[in-house]
Records
---
Amino acid sequence: MSRVLEVENLKISFPGGDHTRVYPVDGVSFQLERGQTLALVGESGCGKSLTSLALLQLVPPPGRIETGSVIRLGDTDVLALQGEALRRIRGRRIGMIFQDPMTSLNPVFTVEDQIVEGILAHFKMARAKARERALQLLQEVGIPDPEQRLKAYPHQLSGGMRQRVMIAIALAAEPEILVADEPTTALDVTVQAQILEVLDRLRTSRGMAVLLITHDLGIVAGRADRVAVMYAGQIIEETSTGRLFANPSHPYTQGLFASVPRITGPLKRLNPIRGSVPAPAAWPSGCRFRPRCPKAFDKSELEPPLLPVEPDHLMRCWLAEQQGAGTRQEPGTKS
Amino acid sequence: MIPLLAVLRSAWRKPRGRAGAVLLLVVILAALVGPWFLPDPLAQPDILQGSLPPGPGHPFGTDQLNRDVLARVVAGARVSLSVAFLAVMLSATLGAAVGLLAGYWGGTVDSALMRLVDGALAIPRLFILLLVLAAWERVPLAALIFLIGATGWFATSRLVRAEVLRLREEGYVHAAEALGARRVHVILRHLLPNAAGPLLVAATLAIGDVILLEAGLSFLGLGVQPPAPSWGGMVLDSKEVLVSAPWVSIFPGLAIVITVLSANLFGEALRDAVDPRSA
Amino acid sequence: MVGRELSGWLLRRGLQAAAAFAIALTILFFLMRAAPGDPLSRISEGRPLSPAEVATLRARYGLDQPVTQQFVSFVGGLLRGDLGVSIEYGRPVTALLAERLPATVLLGGSVLLLNFTVGLWLGVRQAVRRGRREDRWLTTASLIGYAMPSFWLGLVLAWLVGIQLRLLPAAGMQDPLLSLEASFVERSIDVLRHLVLPALTLSVVSIAATMRYQRTAMLEVLQLPFITTARAKGLPDTVVTWRHAWRNALFPVITLFGLWLPILVTGSVFVESVFAWPGLGSLAAAAVWGRDYPLLMGASLLVAALVVAAGFLTDVAYAMLDPRVRLA
């Protein structure tokens, strides 16, 4: 497998008042291989969306990516690019799908306009030819009656159709990586399944790498190859999907599993994690999960690095040093 | 609700808001104490000498009747500021009253008042005032203030009405009504304090508009009547000596620009404090 | 789907506009009648009138009838296109207004053009460069422009450009000394040269408002998700700004046209008088100085009609340009 994307020590800062800066994304590193799906999982406010925007230098002002961060697309150093060179990789190397298809499409342009301009931004071809491709893309994402849909304005389409159009736009310039930021959050449950199916199919047929950003562990299983769990601007656990589901190790990850309602298995009371994600300015010292963690102990007052739990399984918790102690106590809930 | 004091403080913290407030205070202070230190604005020490250029003794020069321009600009500040403040107070009060009435009572009262406002807004304020003021040979100052104030509430009433409609949907107004609070009580205790922020912003921004309006009316000879000094009237009088003594025109105009600018700077800072999205 | 709905909406909106004009008309009429002072005072020129003369004059202007009767005949006259006779000029008010309209349309049109090009462009630039030095300077400049009394700015420009530098004519619309044989091109250039200063004066004052408005509208659009989509597609910045953002920020600015007309009309009263531009504004100012009520009333009515019509057209334009518009 070849590595298509490498993120190293990504830090994003925003002004925090009184000339200080806060770091909603604070030292995130991960890799993506060709054809692989990596899920970035976390609650809202953990920095996962900002991380995805940073991949194309789309962090909204006044936020900025700190020096020392590295984003490599193959051999390209993304953060060194600007102007035309930066524009050429947006959409072409990485395509993006956003959370809310209602507001992510421009209300005053037709579907055709919005797909075609994405094609023409990267390929020299006649408009008629681009339209032809737009039509194919709509077919590929499973939109019925694509000829008609091309002429539609976004408000004339249902939420699911709009998200399919978003996917077609993201595919317009045939990127090797697709970033899907909460692609199904705003949709009905049945539509969610359809959209995920489209994404799966495209990954296989086009051999794309997918970065799937979600708060929903339920859609990760059977879809992602690897999972990185984020909390308070950091990745706190990273491993293959199989290992994570078999052996969720970080107390926060365990909390996430405990708060997911399960359809199979015995009916159990849900155990949501107490408290909520603190704002970036209020992140505690030491382990950032410490105030909410049921297993916090004296060493948690020091900030833990990513430590190995088992081969190819890292977590940001000192409990990893005690190998297994308390990390395997809930196998019954995840079969 | 946003407490007014917090709004003022937040406006003061912005450089522009502070610049506006300080400038406005300087103008007000000059208007209050300036006349004690300056020559009589009506005195014509040597009428045959005509207008003198700015120089020692007369920092802004003198006008065609040899009156000190600085003294007249400062005296004009008194007139312009009093007209502006009093007229704006009147129109803010009327606007708040009509807006509360229309928004809270609703129904026929609301539609009747709002149709009236629609119609009134179709006539630019200047034209309403021209029509009424032209009836006087010499407009008394009190009448001028009243008329400017009485023609300035239309937009404000819409603003307050919208605010009331929004607030009515909020829980605590329903709660107060459910508890049997009297209408007057609901209006005074719940609606008015909440509409105070937008009202203050509108009133502050209206100060500048009214100063420009009064200056314009005086320029047309329908505003403050000579020999009482007013900025607009001074520009009008200076027209005949524009070529030989441009300073007689320039200084009163600069006074208008600075005063209106400072009121607007402060007003915008207030608006940003009340509605941070507009910054 | 639209045909039926659209015509129904147009009808309702049209009726609303007509109602606003009717109310404006009523307000104007009764304000004029309620004002203290006698409309005849001007005609008498200070000379004491004999009771017989007074009676004749009152009968001629219909002042001997009850106010409601006067109102009915005034509205009747209006419907026939008769707004009475000017006291100052002794000619029908409608004829005077029609004569002066072209000059005002020329001046207003030029100012409009400058507003909707330079003003919008500057506002968009400001929004794109939000918080940077250029944005701050332009904001300060627009606030100063907005604080300028147009009559004063006009005088200062007339003095500086017209008298001191002798670059451009500072009064009138045509050079009276231009030979009668002058070609159309020469005449046009002459009019344009006369147009520059009044148009510039009015523009400085009104562009400030346009800029502020456009900046705010644009800032609001720039933070919407579809802008991120457009950037993520790899579109060039200018396309994102002008095609994606500005097309959406245009709708609130169209509304500005309705708000903006009263500012223009008000400003033209001052600017036209300062530059002796033979339009409606200077006519209205002359009517004030001459206490010429029929003329002043006619000018005010025309202005009210223009403002109402502009509001109506604004809404129609809005409905036609925005594909989402829900006709309400």
---
Amino acid sequence: MTGNSVGLEVRSLTKVFGRGDGVRAVSDLSFRVEPGRVTGFLGPNGSGKTTTLRCLLGLVTPTSGQTLVGDQPYRELHDPLHVVGAALEASGFHPGRTAVGHLGVVAASAGIARSRIFEVLELVGLADAGHRKVGGYSLGMRQRLSLATALLGDPSVLILDEPANGLDPEGIAWLRNFLRSLAAEGRTVLISSHVLSEVQLTVDDVVIIRKGELVSYGSLQALSTGMNAHVIVRSPDSGRLGEALRSVPAASMTTQENGAFLVTGISAAEIGEIAFSHNIMLHELHTQEHDLEAVFLELTSSEGGAA
Amino acid sequence: MNALRAEFRKIITTKIVFWLTAFSLAFTALTVLLSVYLVPTSARVVNSSMLLQVPEYVNSIVAACGNASIFVIIIGIIGMTSEYRHMTITATFLASPRRSPVVLAKAVAYAIVGALVGVLNFCLSLSLTYITLAGKEHAPIEMSQALHTLIGVIIGFALGAIVGVSVGALIRNQVAAVIAALVFLLLVQPLLNAFVEWTTAWLPGGALDSVMNLTYRQGQLSSGLLPSWGGGLVLLGYAAVLGAIASFTTLKRDIT
């Protein structure tokens, strides 16, 4: 890894494909990706993830806005492969080249020693298949070769587009540990996915987009607790409890079948305090962690979301 | 420098250049054999043994390797367009985000490849001419002329490959680019040459012939060509114009 930690920044990025009223793939998108953390870039298929990543990498020219690696656009990086390693899709290989041949081309283009080729092949578990033609590779092997290509320059930043696609459960678990260890070394890791559960155990932060617009951005923890926690509270004196809770402006609640209230907007501790100060006996008080996948679906479904 | 090294790695890690070079050699061999054992239809008034006594004709057999130059144009086109076809252009532009220098590096790499293919074709046509003329009564093979041909072939094939790369930079679709080049070289160009005399000198085919001092193209005598250096400049001009248009159009396009 060269030099200090390097973050990524997307500033008011807009990309319209085609002329005039073309396809608006990304719309006024802004977020930062911090070093030392794994950031999940999430959204359904066609939400603009790949376009955003390609803008970050200088492959797609933004209609407006800016993308930065550290403090400069990718196209101005002096030695890009030593700063950013990217794995975009599993199809960017000449089928007639071997993995060693492919990595040899990339290594030559960045002045990387050939010994590093065998290191990265070892690292991703392709050492035995290195001299086979990529045309005969399975999707999972292509994913590993993509990752090996990204790692070749020992970069400070890793940008991986749907890296778990085509990997078996064992491979996904391996990838998770591997990406965690890279982040622990202070590297910046950005991975995209259309399934939250796939990366839920890997990421620290999430950027969620829908139809090219930002719908949620922050730590995974904030996503799972902050805005979406439901508190279940049940009291034998539900009438008085309901009255007391309704007087709190931040709280919103629904009544469940068994007479319990499902409260959002305030924490379990706050509800406990209110009940205590009104001298109301509680039989049940707990926070119901929402299923993250349900939250994600709610945020990204075409009807719901914050946009 | 790294970009150039990467281009050579790309070339040696696939087989296409090898095969197209092999085809070009086969074509040169065929040209020499036909020229020695048969008589061009345009010269049917004489017979084969008489024709071989004409010094210009013998020299033209050695120079026949120049006819294989179309293969290096195709090699250049495929070298550029296969990046788009297999989407390796993504990795290429990630390593070298400034795009025009990538095409320039490719042009240099393929110029060297083209020159080598030219040397191979020359060696084949010279040695095959020697072998097939042995035991026949024939005008001497003039080494000074052969040397002239060699230099012309080296430069001509290098320029042909550069033109090919620039065509590929402009037309990203491999099939479209190859077809466009062949249609132009084999149909449009002969048509124009047949009806508008001055086009012979200025279109790529005639320019290539003048670089290589090729007086016979597939049995037909060509005339009214530019001097060698003029032909070379014309070819460089084509490559520069195509490349410049590409750098403002196709090369700027999003890689998706």
